[in-house]
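> example.struct
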C-alpha cells in the first residue's frame, strides 16, 4: 500500500492507495485531461529506490460512475492483452472506502504529444495489430462483450449474439431510439421516412452478404472510438498510445468508420494504410458502402450526445439518405435487367 505524504486536507482514499505500489509515496495529484462524464487525475508516486512512477485515475460517481469505470477497466484490460505496446497497462478498478458512491479506474500514465495526429503508418499499425492479433479469439466465438461499454456516457448493448447482422441491427435500433429521445419534440420528417428503409433495405443489403454464400465474419476485438483524441504519439514521436476504448467483439471494419468522418482530419490515407495490412472483407465491392454504414454509428452517437447542434443530426440524415438511395438504385437496375429487352412488335 502506498502512503499519501502531501500536505493537503483531503488525502487519497485508502482503497486507491492500496492499488498503488507497495512502499510508494504519493507526491502529487493533478487534473489530467478533460471529460464531460468523469474526473481524471495524474498521480505521481515516489518509490523507495528513488524512481518515480506515474498513474492515471478515472473517477466516477453513483451507478453511472460504477458502470463507466467497469467499462473502462474491462475494455482497456482486453485491449492490453493484444497490443500491450500501445495501451497503458490497466491496474485496478474499485470503490472508495471513504465514499462508497465514488468508483475508480487506475492505469499506468503515458506522457503523450497532445497536438500531433499520428501519421497513417503509425496510427494504423496499432489498429491493424489489435484486429489481427485478436481475430478469432472471442471468448465464446460470438459478437458482443462481457460488459456493456460506454461511448461518452452512452451505454452500448453488448449482449452476446450469434450473427453480425443481428448484433449490428440491434445496436442501430437502440442508438437511433436514443438519438430520437435526445431530440424529443423535434420532429424530422426526412429521418422518419428514412429510418424504416434503413432497417428494411440498407442493413440487410450490406450486412447479410458478409455471412452468406459461404462467407462469414470472424469476431475480433474492436476499439470502437478511434477518433484522434484517443490515439496519440508517446513522447518518442513514433509509437502511438491507444486508449479510452468502448470495446466489443465485432467486424473489424467497424473501427474504420471514424476515418471516413469529415469531422476528423484522417481520411483515405489512413484507410489505404490499413488495407495494406488487413484484407478487405468479402464482398469487396461493398466496402465503400460498409464504411459509410459504420461511420453512421459514430455520427448517430454524436448527435445523441450533442442534440443542441443541429448540424450533427443533418449529417446523420444525409448519410442515411445516401445509403437508402444507393440500395434503391440497385433495385431499379436489377428489375430492369431481369425484365430483359422489350419484345418487337409484330406487324
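> example.seq
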Amino acid at each position: 500500500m502506498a502512503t499519501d505524504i502531501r500536505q493537503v486536507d483531503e488525502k487519497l482514499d485508502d482503497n486507491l492507495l492500496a492499488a498503488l505500489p507497495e512502499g510508494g509515496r504519493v507526491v502529487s495529484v493533478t487534473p489530467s485531461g478533460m471529460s464531460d462524464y468523469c474526473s481524471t487525475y495524474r498521480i505521481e508516486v515516489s518509490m523507495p529506490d528513488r524512481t518515480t512512477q506515474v498513474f492515471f485515475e478515472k473517477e466516477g460517481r453513483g451507478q453511472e460512475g460504477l458502470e463507466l469505470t467497469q467499462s473502462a477497466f474491462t475494455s482497456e484490460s482486453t485491449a492490453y492483452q493484444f497490443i500491450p505496446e500501445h495501451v497503458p497497462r490497466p491496474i485496478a478498478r474499485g470503490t472508495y472506502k471513504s465514499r462508497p458512491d465514488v468508483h475508480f479506474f487506475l492505469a499506468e500514465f503515458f506522457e503523450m504529444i497532445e497536438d500531433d495526429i499520428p501519421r497513417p503508418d503509425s496510427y494504423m499499425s496499432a489498429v491493424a495489430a489489435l484486429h489481427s492479433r485478436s481475430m478469432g479469439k472471442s471468448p465464446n466465438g460470438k459478437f458482443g462483450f462481457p460488459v456493456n461499454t460506454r461511448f461518452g456516457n452512452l451505454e452500448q448493448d453488448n449482449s452476446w449474439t450469434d450473427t453480425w447482422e443481428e448484433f449490428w441491427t440491434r445496436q442501430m435500433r437502440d442508438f437511433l431510439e436514443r438519438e430520437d429521445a435526445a431530440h424529443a419534440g423535434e420532429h424530422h420528417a426526412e429521418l422518419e421516412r428514412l429510418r424504416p428503409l434503413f432497417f428494411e433495405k440498407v442493413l440487410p443489403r450490406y450486412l447479410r452478404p458478409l455471412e452468406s454464400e459461404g462467407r462469414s465474419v470472424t469476431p475480433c476485438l474492436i476499439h470502437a472510438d478511434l477518433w484522434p483524441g484517443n490515439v496519440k504519439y508517446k513522447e518518442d514521436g513514433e509509437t502511438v498510445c491507444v486508449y479510452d476504448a468502448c470495446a466489443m467483439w465485432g467486424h473489424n471494419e467497424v473501427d474504420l468508420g471514424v476515418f471516413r468522418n469529415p469531422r476528423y482530419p484522417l481520411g483515405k490515407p489512413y484507410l489505404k494504410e490499413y488495407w495494406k495490412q488487413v484484407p478487405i472483407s468479402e464482398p469487396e465491392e461493398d466496402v465503400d458502402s460498409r464504411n459509410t454504414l459504420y461511420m453512421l454509428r459514430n455520427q448517430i452517437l454524436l448527435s445523441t450526445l450533442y442534440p443542441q447542434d443541429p448540424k450533427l443530426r443533418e449529417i446523420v440524415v444525409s448519410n442515411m439518405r445516401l445509403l437508402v438511395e444507393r440500395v434503391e438504385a440497385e433495385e431499379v437496375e436489377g428489375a430492369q435487367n431481369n425484365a430483359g429487352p422489350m419484345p418487337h412488335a409484330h406487324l
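> remarks
The chain has two domains: 19-109, 113-335.
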